[in-house]
Amino acid sequence: MKRARSGLLFLPLCLALGACGDDITTIVDGDPAAPRNLSGWYYNQAVYLTWELAPAWDGETFRVYGKRTTDARYYLIAEVTNCSGGRCSYTDINIVSEVTYEYYVAAVSPGGLETASDHSVQVFVPEPVPPPIPTGAEVVALDNAVFLRWSDNARNASDFSFYRVYLVDDAGDSYLLGETDSEGFLDLLVVNGFTYTYFVSAVDDQGHESSGSETAYGTPRPDYHGEWIYAYEDVPARSGFRFPQDELTYPIVSGTSPDRHFRMEVDAEGWWLVLGPGTEIYNGLFETSALKCGVAADFDCVDLTRAPQTGYTTQDMPLYPEITYVFRVVGDGGGLHYGVIRVILLGFDQEDSALMIFDWAYQLQAGNPELVAKEATGR
Prior knowledge:
The chain is an all-beta fold.
């Protein structure tokens, strides 16, 4: 790379006339220090250039020159002053796909002298082809958390790099929530009882981003693992249960409480769920392996993701282990809410009192049948 020089040598008029005194200073515009370690690369429809300041740098600005490799001469494309921490940068977005560009940078003195970098860099601009759009997005609603998962079809692209996860607000505007290189994302910034909508895009190793996936939405809600109640016949004060609005409210109530959603009874014919005032239970049994198949669930995990809309009864329901039961209850605000329990164990304590250990979840939004996960819907 040749050093480009231009500028003026400034001499006082008295020097030319031979009449300068001892207090006269000669002003000379010298060569500026050349920029060092120029590098360039392509990413997401832009060319990025960086270079380092020389130790003798004295605040000079820089000129960026560029051309297509098929061009005969360079063109001035920018003047740069945004240097920080000993480095400078420039981003060229005026580029065309399937073209190779060549760049060099020159330091410029106040008088206009230029000192070019000792080399130029060539950058090829590819066709901006993104990875496939991720499919199968769904939400697992947790307690004060949401787990978003999707299929790995975007990994079929040889240049796949990572995913971007977006949150969609009520106005339909989307915001980047985070990035991940796995097919899952845990959002811990949610609040129980509010519905959140998400979509996912895939990004390749050159920054090309796919369109967004189908949206998936979910409503986090309180849940609890390992709750237990006694049979009404054995410990009536701890035989009733009411789905709470939050985990600060103790859900175990007396079996005679008018606020109970159900209580447990045991007789010679078996174990029973006996409903409280205003409570309905789905007239069917769901054999499941977990209350919800969450982040670390086995591949063959089975849960119940959505409450049925019809088919409820007020009749007593027999109790069995590893069965999920769905309730439609009157909540604290008077609206109809869905709750779910999964029986873990039916047995007896050391006092021979019958008890049931179970997991439960409760939907805080009135009328929302979502219990665990919501299938993806079209954007």
